[in-house]
Amino acid sequence: MFSGMLYIFLPLIIGYFITINKPAVLAFINTQTSRLVLVILTLMGLSLAGLDNIGQNLNQILTYTLVFFLMISACNLLALPVLDKLMPTETAHGHQTLPLRDMILESLKLIVVVAGGLIVGLMTGIELGWVDQASEVILLLLLFLIGIQLRNSGMTLKQILLNKKGIIIALTIIATSLPGGLIAAWLLDLPYNQGLAMASGFGWYSLAGILIGDSLGPVMGGAAFLNELLRELVALSLIPMMISRYPSTAIGYAGATAMDFTLPVIQNCGGIRCVPIAIVSGFILSLLVPVLMLFFLSL
User: Fold this and answer.
1) Which of 42, 66, 91, 242 supports an S-S bond with 250, CB 3.0-4.6 Å?
2) Where are the transmembrane segments (predicted)?
3) Please, which residues have CB within 8 angstroms of residue 132's CB and are 6 or more apart in sequence?
4) Which of 79-88, 106-115, 141-150, 271-280: highest mean pLDDT?
5) Under 8 Å CB-to-CB from 198, ≥6 apart: which residues?
6) Burial of 133 (0-12, 13-18, 19+ CB in 10 A)
7) What is the average pLDDT score of the chain?
8) Is the pLDDT of residue 132 over 80?
9) What confidence score (pLDDT) does residue 100 get?
10) HEC states along the chain?
11) Percentage of the chain modeled with pLDDT above 90
C-alpha cells in the first residue's frame, strides 16, 4: 500500500535535503517549477479530452468542485473566527491598495492552460496514450524541485516553533478541512480516503490537481485543481475585507498560499505583524499537502 506513496514521495524528500545558497540557482529552480506546472496542467487538459462522454465528465467535475469547496470552506469558517476571539492579533488599518485584479487574472490563467490542453486534444484528435506516463515523469521532477523550494524557503525550525499563532492556525485548517472532506465524500458517495485526500490541498491548486489526477484520474484531478483555485480566488477577495477584524480567519482561509501568493495582500492589508504568522501557517500547510495527500491516496 505504501510502496506507491514512497515512490512519489521520495523525490520530495531528496529535494528537501538539498541546500542551495546561490540566489541565481534558486531563481532558476523557481522559474522551471512554474513552467513544469503549466506543462502538467496542459497534460491534464489533454487527459480530459481523452475521456468518453466529455460533457458528462465536465459536469461531474463542476459538481465535485462545488460540493468539496462549500463543505471544506464552511468547516474552516466555522472555527477560524473563534481563534480571532481567543487570540486577538493587532493589524494595521491603513492598508494599501493592491492590484487584486492582476493577481486574480494570474490565477485564472491556469484555468485557460487546462482548457487549452482540452481544446487541443478535442480538435486535433491526437493519440493520448502517452499523456499519463509523461505526467508521471514530470510529476516526479516537479516534486523534487518543490522539495528544494521548501528547504530553501528561509524558514528555520526555530522560527516555526516559536510562532504559536501560525501553528495553531495551520492545525485549525487541517482539523476542520478533513471533516469537510469527509462530509463532501459522503454527499457524493465517494470513498472516505478520496474525500480526505481532496481536503488536504489547503489551497495549493497546482500540486493538489496533479497528485489527485495522477492517482484518481483526470476527473478528480480537475475537481481538486478547481476546488483549490477557487479557494485562492475567494481568499484574495476576502482578505482586504476581513483582515482588520478577523486576521486569523483571513490568514487561515488563505491556506498554503499565505506564505507566497496571498502574502503581499496579507502584508499590505494587515500590516507587518501578520507576516510571520502567515508565513509559518502557510509553510506548515505547504509542507503537509504532499504528506497528507499521498498518505490518504495510498489507503
Assistant:
1) 242
2) 6-29, 36-55, 61-83, 110-131, 137-154, 166-188, 203-226, 233-255, 275-297
3) 47
4) 79-88
5) 64, 68, 181, 184, 185, 208, 212, 220, 223, 224, 227
6) exposed
7) 84
8) no
9) 58
10) CHHHHHHHHHHHHHHHCCCCCCHHHHHHHHHHHHHHHHHHHHHHHHHHHCCCCHHHHHHHHHHHHHHHHHHHHHHHHHHHHHHHHHCCCCCCCCCCCCCHHHHHHHHHHHHHHHHHHHHHHHHHCCCCCCHHHHHHHHHHHHHHHHHHHHHCCCCCHHHHHHCHHHHHHHHHHHHHHHHHHHHHHHHHCCCHHHHHHHCCCCCCHHHHHHHHHHHHCHHHHHHHHHHHHHHHHHHHHHHHHHCCCCHHHHHHHCHHHHHCCCHHHHHHHHCCCHHHHHHHHHHHHHHHHHHHHHHHHHC
11) 33
What residues have CB less than 8 Å from 175, skipping those under 6 apart? 79
Judged against a pLDDT cut of 90, whether residue 76 lies above it is answered with: yes
Cβ(94)–Cβ(243) under 8 Å?
no
Give the Cα separation of 155 and 162 in Å (integer): 11
**Cβ 43 vs Cβ 134: under 8 Å:** yes
pTM of the model: 0.81
Task: Give the mean model confidence (pLDDT) for residues 32-44.
Answer: 82
The single residue listed with the C-alpha cell 497546482 is 206
134 close to 49: Cβ distance less than 8 angstroms: no
What whole-number percentage of the chain has pLDDT above 70? Answer: 88
CA distance 36 to 174: 27
* Residue 163 contacts residue 283 (beta carbons within 8 Å): no
Look at 40 and 4; give whichever has higher pLDDT. Answer: 40
